[in-house]
Each structure stands twice: as C-alpha cells, then as structure tokens.
Design a protein that fits this description.
Helix content is 16%, strand content 19%. By secondary structure, it is α+β, with helices and mostly antiparallel strands.
Length: 79
C-alpha cells in the first residue's frame, strides 16, 4: 500500500470545513507550471519532512472582525 502525503486546510469562520488534499496535487497553474500544495505551503511542508513541529499560521482572527468573524466562530490557520 502506498503512503500519500496530504495537507489539511482550515478556514476562518468554519471550523467544520477542513478539506484534506494530496500534498502534490495542483493548487493552481502558473503559466505552464503546476503549483502544488506542497509548493504553496513550502515552509510547513519542509517542517513536516524534517519531522519538526508544525505551527499553525494565517490571518489573525482580530483582522477578520470587520467581516463578522470572531474567535468564537472558528479557527484560522493552515495545518
């Protein structure tokens, strides 16, 4: 059985929506180059590959208050 590395995405305001996608799948196209999720989140992917602790990052919830999203509604990070 083959092991596939994956990324779990998290979005502010919806703690129940956290898609899990293959790390080497396409995030977007840049001309003729396919940008993978591993490339999009290169720092976190490198930490994972080195076995280092991974730290959540993203937009602080305080900055989303103007859009009606508070700390009580969910988390904002890339995990």
């Amino acid at each position: 059985m083959e092991t596939i590395e994956v990324v779990e995405l998290r979005f502010a305001g919806d703690k129940n929506y956290a898609p899990v996608l293959p790390a080497l799948s396409m995030y977007r196209m840049d001309g003729h180059h396919v940008v993978t999720y591993a490339e999009r989140f290169a720092k976190q992917y490198a930490e994972f590959q080195q076995g280092a602790a991974q730290h959540a990052s993203g937009t602080p919830l305080e900055k989303l208050a103007q859009y009606g999203i508070s700390g009580a509604r969910g988390r904002c990070c890339v995990g």
